[in-house]
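Lecture 7 notes. Example A: sequence first, then its structure tokens.
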Amino acid sequence: MSNKQCEEKLKDRGVRPTAARILVLNMLAKQTAPISLMELEILLETLDKSTISRTLALLLEHHAIHAFEDGSGSTKYEICRSQSDTCVVADRHIHFFCEVCHKTQCLSDIKIPVVALPEGYTVNSINYMVKGVCPACSQAGNKLKTEE
């Protein structure tokens, strides 16, 4: 995603495009997996933690990104790739947390099932986290067993 595309996405979501907001959104767009605030700080060393935190909060509020807890103890963030003006629950996908390498991966082709809640309840977000062993760690574990 180019800086111009980031600027347009921000405007579409009702967010004034500042340099810091474009940098954060662009960095999230470049990622192939969700990342934490600490990882963003390392990647965006020219921005301080409070600027990144405030930017993430604003982007969440305007549905340009979404966040979830993956079981590692930190919140992970990723850009909302929905073409609509909001990051709707039906567009969300399942995430997988590998208990060996501690990486979180998007399973973008598997959508989160929408649950029918009793009358009076409203869904604002859903976090569907699957935990286990990823293919790379599984394969590495099998190699170690066959070498023994």
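Example B, a different protein, same format:
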Amino acid sequence: MNAMSRRGACPTLSAPMQTGDGLLARLNPVAGGLSPKALIGLCESAQRHGSGIVEVTARGSLQIRGLTPSSANRLAREVDELGIAVRSGVPVETGPLAGIDPSEVVDPSPLGDRIRADITAVGLAERLGPKVSVVVDGGGRLALDAFIADVRLVAQRHSDETVWQLATGGDAATAMQHGFVSGDAACDAVIAILQAIGELGKEARARDLDATRISETIAHLDGREHQPNRITRVIHQSPLSAIPLSNGTLALAIALPFGSTPAGALIDLARAALAEGVTDIRPAPARALLFPGLGHDAFHRLREAAVTLGFVTDASDPRLYIAACPGAPACASGKVETRAIAEHIAATQADLLDGTFTLHVSGCSKGCAHPAPAALAVVGCDWGAGLVVNEKASALTPDSASCNDARRGLAHIADLVQTSRRPTETAAASLARLGSIAIETAYRQE
């Protein structure tokens, strides 16, 4: 291990980050996935050297928690011994179904590989900050729309030609659109934008660039008129279903409850996948894992095994709509048992968790599991379990609503929503209409 990652940077296998429950190491396999045997070996290493908890992040990275400086070194050596090559440098995301998704406009992998190679060739990684990233989305079933990226390319069919919609500085909804570029010019456009970011320093991001300069650069490279028009893409269904692949087989997608699982449960699932002939297990966005190459019967057997082991296999599972960090006692910073609260609410208040908002259950005000504002956030604190409404966990103050039993407080909020909900109104709409005063009053109720 060469260094320790500072908070705010991206933890890696060689530079893990200090958290409340020890060091956290993150890794992205170069191959995109792991063989079942390699995943089993990684989980066994997590049991030996960490807390035994394995996570998949919202962007589809694997994380190992509870490491020490010495055990992180041992983990890194064992990852090498397992033959797991991990990515480094500027992240260039292409999605877990790249090249095997029949609904793709085009396989994004060749363009992603070319961008990675050119970043290395011109020495860009050393000049860019750790958060700078690129998305190359082939336009298939598992869209990368939720990924925030400095540069994003999305494949489109336009006048019988494959083109790349180019945007900078956000997710699919918030990024600044710069029209489209041809396949031949796409890599050069990305490199030019990254070089412009690098010229501004390691703290710079694409949002710091002048939009006119970006558009002029793209036009110069591509030799066509560029308008910041947006081409509508197809919205695809949840990945938690049978995903048909190009070779006629199916992929099973499962999610980790709250993004994490005991390593032993994942070992058991990997062994079941190995028995069904799976050769590749791929981390995926939304804290999921994909098991491609399954026949119909094998798909259903493996799905049943996943259900038995406690994984999420249904898109309506309320656990998908709760963001919960490890909390107490796993994390030294945690003031409340976040996972116990989350499990209880998911089991008893499914009507509240209708998928229209995220419930954030945070062990402390750092809000690691959900950095963005949430409609409801229960936050552990010295005076109990606080509540913030439509804010980040960090907005908690001693004046915020609090109670000694978050389960009870959330149950009162659920009852309030249930009794006051208008016909066809979503939970999110009901919460917005009720307002923070009514919600906080319900939460405090004994």
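Note on Example B: Confidence is low (pLDDT under 50) at residues 226-237. The radius of gyration is 22 Å.
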